[in-house]
C-alpha cells in the first residue's frame, strides 16, 4: 500500500468513526470492512511513531557529532571562543597568587636546559611551597593549555627571546614547559651543541619533531656597546650608543614570536662604576641620567621594530621590569620567604616599566606589553636565594625554575592561543 492509499484509508476511517458517534449507537458486531480499516489505522500510527523516533535519534546523533569537537576542546584547552572575550577584555596582570596543587608544570631535574644555578630543589632547597602558586587575574583566567596543541601551533616557527639573564631564564622555562609534551626528549637539542652559560650571546634549541626553534640572544641593553671614543676622559672605558640597536639585531628579524626585555643592567654599578657612559652619534653624553638614556634607547628600539619587523607575521612582546627582593641597598641580605608577600611594599612600581608603557603606547605597530612588575613583586618566596650553584653568593634577583617565569610564559601562550 503506498502513502496515498494509506492516507485515503485513514480519512475514510476517521469519517466512519464520526458518523457512528453522531448517529445511533453502532451495532455490537463490527463488519469485516471496519476491522480492516481499524487495522490499517493502527499500522499507520505505528509507522508514524517509528519514523518520529528514528528522526529524533538522527537529530541527536548529528548534534553530538557537531558539538563533540567543541566539548573536546573545552575539556583539553578550555573553550577558546568563550575565552577570547574574557581574556582580551580583562587586565590579566591585575590579580593574586592562589595555591594550586597542579603546579609545578615540569621537573627541572628532568629538563636538560635549566641552568644548574636555577634548579633550587636540585641545589638543596627543602620547602616546596613556592612551586604551588598560580596567578589568578581578577576578571578572567589564564588559559591552561594542552602542550601538544602548543607544539603544533609552533610547528615550523621561530620563537625568539632578546634580553638579559632574566630573558634567558624565561627562555629555559618555555623549553622545559614544551618538552613535557615531547615523547623523544633527544629530539630536542641545542642547535650548535652549546652548553648554557651566562655569557654566550646566542643559544637556540630545536624541536626537531615539530621543526621549530626557541632562540635566545643576549642583549642586556638592546643598544650597541662600543669602545672608548677618541679624546674621551679617562673615566670613560666604553659607551652605550643609544641611537643604534645591537649589532646582532638582524638575527631577530623573520621570527614568528619576538619577546624583548631589558632593565636589570641599567644601574650605576653596571654602567658608570665600570666606566660605561652614554653616546648619541659622535657625542658623549656624560651628564645624561640613566632613565633618560633608557628612554632614548627604547625610542631607538621602537623605530627599529617599526622599520624592520612585519607585525602581520611576527607577534612582538615586551616584558617589563622584574623586581628583586634584596634586604638592603648593598644587596648583601637576601631574605627568601616561605610564602608570597601579602603586599608589594613599593616594588610594584618601576620607572623602567612606566617608560616601556609610554614608548609602546606611541608606537605605530601593535606591541603586547607583559606588565609583570606588580605580580612578580609579591613573589619574595620564589628567588634563588642561597640555592644556586654558588651557595655563598645569595641571589634575590633571579628566580627558581620551576617558578615565576613559567607564569610569564603561560600568559604569552594565552595571548597566542586567543589571538
From TrEMBL:
GO terms for cellular component: membrane. Belongs to the PC-esterase family. TBL subfamily. GO terms for molecular function: O-acetyltransferase activity. It is a single-pass membrane protein. Residues 89-141 form the Trichome birefringence-like N-terminal domain. Signal peptide: none annotated. Keywords: Membrane, Signal-anchor, Transmembrane, Transmembrane helix. It comes from Juglans regia. InterPro entries: TBL, TBL_C, TBL_N. It comes from the Eukaryota. Its main location: membrane. The chain crosses the membrane at residues 44-67. It is found in: Membrane. Residues 144-414 form the Trichome birefringence-like C-terminal domain. This is Protein trichome berefringence-like 7. Pfam families: PC-Esterase, PMR5N.
Amino acid at each position: 500500500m503506498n502513502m496515498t492509499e494509506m492516507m485515503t484509508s485513514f480519512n475514510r476511517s476517521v469519517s466512519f468513526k464520526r458518523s457512528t458517534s453522531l448517529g445511533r449507537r453502532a451495532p455490537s458486531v463490527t463488519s469485516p470492512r471496519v476491522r480492516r480499516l481499524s487495522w490499517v489505522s493502527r499500522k499507520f500510527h505505528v509507522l508514524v511513531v517509528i519514523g518520529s523516533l528514528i528522526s529524533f535519534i538522527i537529530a541527536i546523533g548529528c548534534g553530538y557529532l557537531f558539538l563533540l569537537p567543541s566539548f573536546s576542546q573545552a575539556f583539553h584547552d578550555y573553550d577558546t571562543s568563550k575565552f577570547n572575550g574574557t581574556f582580551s577584555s580583562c587586565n590579566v596582570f591585575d590579580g593574586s597568587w592562589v595555591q594550586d596543587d597542579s603546579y609545578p608544570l615540569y621537573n627541572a631535574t628532568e629538563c636538560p636546559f635549566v641552568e644548574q644555578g636555577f634548579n633550587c630543589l636540585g641545589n638543596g632547597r627543602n620547602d616546596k611551597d613556592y612551586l604551588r602558586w598560580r596567578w589568578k587575574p581578577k576578571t578572567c583566567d589564564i588559559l591552561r593549555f594542552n602542550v601538544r596543541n602548543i607544539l603544533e601551533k609552533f610547528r615550523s616557527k621561530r620563537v625568539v627571546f632578546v634580553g638579559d639573564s632574566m630573558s634567558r631564564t624565561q627562555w629555559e622555562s618555555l623549553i622545559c614547559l614544551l618538552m613535557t609534551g615531547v615523547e623523544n626528549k633527544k629530539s630536542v637539542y641545542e642547535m650548535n651543541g652549546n652548553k648554557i652559560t651566562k655569557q654566550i650571546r646566542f643559544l637556540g634549541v630545536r624541536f626537531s619533531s615539530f621543526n621549530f626553534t626557541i632562540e635566545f640572544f643576549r642583549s642586556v641593553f638592546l643598544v650597541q656597546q662600543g669602545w672608548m671614543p677618541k679624546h674621551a676622559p679617562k673615566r670613560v672605558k666604553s659607551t652605550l650608543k643609544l641611537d643604534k640597536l645591537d649589532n646582532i639585531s638582524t638575527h631577530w628579524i623573520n621570527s614568528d614570536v619576538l619577546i624583548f626585555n631589558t632593565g636589570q643592567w641599567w644601574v650605576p654599578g653596571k654602567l658608570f662604576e665600570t666606566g660605561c657612559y652614554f653616546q648619541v652619534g659622535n657625542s658623549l653624553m656624560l651628564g645624561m641620567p640613566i632613565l633618560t638614556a633608557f628612554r632614548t634607547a627604547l625610542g631607538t628600539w621602537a623605530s627599529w621594530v617599526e622599520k624592520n619587523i612585519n607585525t602581520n607575521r611576527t607577534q612582538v612582546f615586551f616584558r617589563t621590569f622584574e623586581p628583586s627582593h634584596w634586604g638592603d641597598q648593598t644587596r648583601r641580605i637576601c631574605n627568601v620567604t616561605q610564602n608570597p608577600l601579602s603586599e608589594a611594599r613599593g616594588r610594584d612600581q618601576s620607572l623602567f616599566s612606566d617608560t616601556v608603557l609610554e614608548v609602546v603606547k606611541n608606537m605605530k605597530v601593535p606591541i603586547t606589553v607583559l606588565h609583570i612588575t606588580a605580580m612578580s613583586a609579591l613573589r619574595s618566596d620564589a628567588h634563588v636565594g642561597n640555592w644556586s650553584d654558588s651557595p655563598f653568593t645569595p641571589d634575590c634577583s633571579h628566580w627558581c625554575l620551576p617558578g615565576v617565569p613559567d607564569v610569564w610564559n603561560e600568559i604569552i601562550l594565552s595571548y597566542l592561543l586567543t589571538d
